């Protein structure tokens, strides 16, 4: 599971909205040192980000995509352990934010999670950015993002010159296998969306909104496709090959 740092549990309404404001400030004034009232770590990273001149200073990012239950989280944990990348799960960050006391986005996030629909990018991207900016790591696995065009556009807008997408790891797995795995996971996960009704919508969202993103990255020759319908170890054997060949 995603590692939760104690300080991240206290983020609520004020911190996230201030963070979004800071991000917008950064976008509009890329060279201006931010001196707003958010945490010093975030403002420090933003000022560092604004001076990033070349790609060696950028965050290295591998996006991890696939249907619900395709094994993204499971494989990310193994990659994190073996290759030292930090695993950021968009879904997990949203679930944490939904539970954060006083989060202004809690209800909105909950509705999207239940419907299997996609949370607006300003929220998801800000949560990802906050994690990256406060991490000591430079290499990130971003699991479950970008899930649609809105995500992709929001990412490109915010992260240009800040993060470089090195690869898109795509776990291909039949719908029926994905559904069975999620229903199984739902027996113990306590997730409100691991049920038949939500899963239908999540698979539909994946087909209609996420597959075009994978196609987009194929045109950029960034997709590493792995057959996710095998044992965890067999899948990881292929994943390892991808990461051994990754230049970052
Ligand atoms: P995702 O992050 O893509 O939604 P998870 O990694 O959480 O998927 O996996 C969904 C469920 O399937 C979990 O209960 C997990 O233990 C199980 N699982 C993951 N990979 C495999 C696999 N290769 N074979 C069988 N079960 C798996
Ligand atoms: P996951 O944990 O990846 O299965 O995601 C669970 C749910 O979180 C999804 O069905 C969406 O409602 C939401 N979600 C996850 N990732 C994103 C994202 N990139 N953008 C918006 N919503 C997301």
TrEMBL record:
Any keyword ATP-binding? yes
Chain intervals for the UniProt region annotation (NMPbind): 89-119
| Record-level GO BP terms | 'de novo' pyrimidine nucleobase biosynthetic process; pyrimidine nucleotide biosynthetic process
Chief location of this protein within or outside the cell: cytoplasm
Catalysed reaction equations from the record: CMP + ATP = CDP + ADP; dCMP + ATP = dCDP + ADP; UMP + ATP = UDP + ADP
What CDD domains has UniProt attached to this entry? Answer: ADK (cd01428)
Q: Which InterPro entries does the protein's record reference?
A: Adenylat/UMP-CMP_kin (IPR000850), Adenylat_kinase_CS (IPR033690), P-loop_NTPase (IPR027417), UMP_CMP_kinase (IPR006266)
* Residues covered by region (LID): 184-194
Role of this protein? Catalyzes the phosphorylation of pyrimidine nucleoside monophosphates at the expense of ATP. Plays an important role in de novo pyrimidine nucleotide biosynthesis. Has preference for UMP and CMP as phosphate acceptors.
What's in the domain note?
Consists of three domains, a large central CORE domain and two small peripheral domains, NMPbind and LID, which undergo movements during catalysis. The LID domain closes over the site of phosphoryl transfer upon ATP binding. Assembling and dissambling the active center during each catalytic cycle provides an effective means to prevent ATP hydrolysis.
This one is known as UMP-CMP kinase
Query: What phylogenetic lineage does the species belong to?
Result: Eukaryota, Metazoa, Spiralia, Lophotrochozoa, Mollusca
């Amino acid at each position: 599971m995603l590692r939760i740092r104690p300080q991240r549990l206290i983020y609520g309404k004020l911190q996230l909205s201030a963070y979004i404001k800071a991000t917008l400030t950064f976008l509009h004034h890329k060279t201006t040192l931010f001196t707003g009232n958010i945490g010093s770590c975030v403002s420090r990273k933003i000022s560092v980000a604004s001076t990033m001149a070349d790609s060696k200073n950028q965050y290295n990012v591998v996006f991890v995509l696939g249907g619900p239950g395709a094994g993204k989280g499971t494989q990310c944990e193994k990659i994190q352990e073996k290759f030292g990348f930090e695993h950021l799960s968009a879904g997990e960050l949203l679930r944490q934010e939904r539970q954060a006391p006083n989060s202004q986005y809690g209800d909105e996030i909950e509705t999207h999670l239940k419907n299997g629909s996609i949370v607006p990018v300003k929220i998801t991207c800000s949560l990802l950015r906050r994690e990256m900016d406060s991490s000591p790591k430079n290499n990130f696995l971003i699991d479950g993002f970008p899930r649609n065009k809105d995500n992709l556009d929001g990412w490109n807008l915010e992260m240009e010159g800040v993060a470089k997408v090195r690869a898109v790891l795509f776990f291909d797995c039949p719908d029926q296998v994905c559904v069975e795995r999620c229903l199984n996971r739902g027996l113990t996960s306590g997730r409100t969306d691991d049920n038949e009704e939500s899963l239908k919508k999540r698979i539909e969202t994946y087909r209609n909104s996420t597959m075009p993103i994978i196609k987009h990255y194929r045109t950029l020759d960034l997709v590493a496709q792995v057959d996710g319908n095998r044992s965890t170890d067999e899948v990881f054997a292929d994943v390892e090959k991808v990461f051994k060949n990754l230049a970052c």
